[in-house]
Amino acid sequence: MTLCDAGPLFALVNRRETPHHASCVSALSRLSQPLVTTWPCLAEAMYLAGRHGGWAMQRLLWDYLLRDALTIHNLTAGEVQRMRTLMEKYSDLPMDLADASLVAAAESLGETTVFTVDAHFRVYRLPDGAAFAVVP
Known about the structure:
It is a single chain. The protein is an alpha/beta fold. It contains 5 helices and 5 strands; from the N terminus they run βααβαβααββ. The protein has a 5-stranded parallel beta sheet with strand order 3-2-1-4-5, sandwiched between helices.
């Protein structure tokens, strides 16, 4: 399993998203499957796909889900509360809802690798102070 942010999801389905498309496609083969994301991340990726490519690009995102290459981590009530705390802690960046959902999921799942093109993940820390392993 690898946690997946909205940016790579959008980059994977958008060939015009350079240079992220090529680096994300290349990284995908090296990542532990499945990719795991959250509803806030998928919603952000769907919005971007719809805005830049319409239904055709959104359908490609749905295909990842239907092929089980992408799964959704359903956030618990505790994780949702943790998201608020994280957004307050990192308000100077600021941390968005999608990022907060991935960090909360990472804490719960014990995952330290995140597939993202977002530089903020180099700043975010796990509860023990460790940094995320950021791919690509």
